[in-house]
Write a structure and sequence with these properties.
mainly alpha; 6 helices; 2 domains
């Protein structure tokens, strides 16, 4: 009777360990999906390749948390438009336009 209990306990322990490893393995894909990451397919491939090369799992996890900031590109575009002041009829009007655009983004 004790032998069967020991076998069942070990089997349940192994099943729980495998389940835990699968959940930990898929964490980067889960976080990327939750954050609506634009490169979710690439993160999924990186996670699958991490079965062979385990450091790729760390890369996939960091990549999943680094979602590109759309406001950063908008600010760069606004600064570029600020630098081309000829279309605004002067430097002061261009400064006002850039300040208003940055306020709208916040």
């Amino acid at each position: 009777m004790n032998e069967y209990f020991a076998i069942i306990t070990v089997a349940i322990g192994i099943a729980l360990l495998i389940t835990l490893l699968i959940v930990l393995f898929l964490l980067p894909v889960h976080f990327a999906r939750k954050r609506n990451h634009p490169s979710i397919d690439a993160i999924r491939v990186c996670t699958l390749l991490s079965l062979i090369l385990w450091p790729l799992w760390c890369v996939a996890m960091i990549w999943a948390f680094n979602t590109p900031d759309k406001n950063r590109y908008q600010k760069i575009y606004t600064r570029r438009r600020y630098l081309t002041t000829s279309q605004f009829g002067g430097k002061e009007r261009a400064k006002d336009y850039a300040a208003d655009a940055l306020k709208e983004m916040e």
